[in-house]
């Protein structure tokens, strides 16, 4: 059985657009659950989504535990052995409190990739396959979040290119979530149940394209 870790924020956790962080879609509705159903019984899909998670930043308001880099190492060791790690982060890095350009958000993803390679939690102590997913661009109207995400919608539209350049330079797999889904207009930065279905299905095809057989 092959294993894949899905490491992300609220759009991996399955937070319902326009709702609070405790209100989420069910296990079979979230994109990791869709991925699990599509890949079949020969795959073990691990969900590690946390609302508010950043790439590498302690959040001065929501807490230091939102730092994706801090938790990544124990997470990798907890779930070893891993054949594939999928990372979809970056939206929360665009909050005005961090004041980061898209290029630095991509650099944060690069730090996570470095940690994965250094820890080598793949079979026999190797580096697992790594896929970075650019989150779908935010809507221009992010409702009551507009002060927190001031300037973020425009930046979010630049993340895919920055992530693709990073993936090419580090020889990683890349997927642009914005090529198949859009954020919900309910709050402007979360994806709805249909988008989870589309994303999970598309990512299953991307995982297959790596060249693995589902029966091995």
List keywords for this structure.
216 residues; alpha/beta; Rossmann fold; 5-stranded parallel sheet
Structure notes:
With 216 residues, this protein is an alpha/beta fold. The protein has a single domain (2-209), classed as SGNH hydrolase (Rossmann fold), CATH 3.40.50.1110. The chain is built from 7 helices and 5 strands; from the N terminus they run E-H-H-E-H-E-H-E-H-H-E-H. It has helices at residues 10-13, 31-39, 68-79, 102-119, 152-156, 159-170, 193-209; strands at residues 2-8, 43-49, 84-88, 129-134, 173-176. Strands 2-1-3-4-5 form a 5-stranded parallel β-sheet, sandwiched between helices. Strand 3 (84-88), helix 4 and strand 4 form a beta-alpha-beta unit. Helix 2 (31-39) packs across helix 7 (193-209). The longest helix is centred in the middle third of the chain and has 18 residues, at 102-119. The relative contact order is 0.18. The mean pLDDT is 96. It comes from Mesorhizobium waimense. Residues 1-25 are annotated as: Disordered. This is Hydrolase. Pfam families: Lipase_GDSL_2.
Q: In terms of per-residue confidence, which ranges show pLDDT below 50 for 5 or more consecutive residues?
A: none
> Helical content, roughly?
25-40%
Strand fraction band?
5-15%
What is Rg? Answer: 16 Å
Report, as a whole number of angstroms, the end-to-end distance.
7 Å
CATH superfamily: SGNH hydrolase
CATH topology-level name: Rossmann fold
Q: Count of DSSP E strands? A: 5
Separate helix tally: 7
Main sheet: strand order? 2-1-3-4-5
- Give the domain tally: 1
